[in-house]
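Reopening this one. Same input as before:
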Amino acid sequence: AVQLVDATSGAHLWAESYDRAFSPEAVFELQDDVVPRIVSTVADMHGVLPHTMSETLRNRDPGTLTPYEMVLRGFGYIERITADEHGVVRAGMERAVQQAPDHADCWAMLSNLYAEDPLARALEAARRAVAAAPSDHLAYHMLAQAHFFRREFQAFRTAADRAIALNPMDGCTTAFMGILMAYAGDWDHGCALAERAMLLNPHHPGWYRFSAFFNAYRRGDFQAALDIALRMNMPSYFYTHIALAAAYGQLGEQAAASSAVRE
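Same output, byte for byte:
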């Protein structure tokens, strides 16, 4: 039984019980099963602790946040992915790298925010992150993303494998690298990584399911694709509605598809 409590306020943040068969000769296998789940659920990018810390910063002026606090604020953006959040967090992260030019996580998060416009800036920021901290999995996570969207797939795969190897207990990195690997054509391996990430942290954001959605869709199993899309539960993210519109449309449910398109 594991419990997480805020030592300042006494607030109960999280608790879980793990029921497993126990035998002395298998104790290390037991630890290998349970410990990564606890670490990921509590402390990965979307873990209970970073989520709680990020939420306390949402109502503060980003101009007053330290570089470390801006990284946490950036984690919250990745969890929600809204247009309003993007502008606020991007401006705050640009200030953060000016204040702390050697802060690898700040450069990594800025690379993520630059990933749409333009990609050259995203790649440069990711390279700055890797140069500042060559053992930082978040830096390689963002380097892999930049290479993927530039269609540099061999460089993407090298960086993605490195990101996962550096921190296999970070469900966010495992999930997103898996999703991109699936989109690059390695569907079985990519979907397996995303599935592993969901098992690591059951409180994951809905976008962890996108590789499973597209895998079902490309195989023509549109009902399964719809079931997956309905479980994403990210109404503020435009791509959730694209997924719903596509699945509903293939199933002939025109009114529901049209509603998703409007959303």
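So the earlier flakiness isn't reproducible anymore. For the record, The mean pLDDT is 95.
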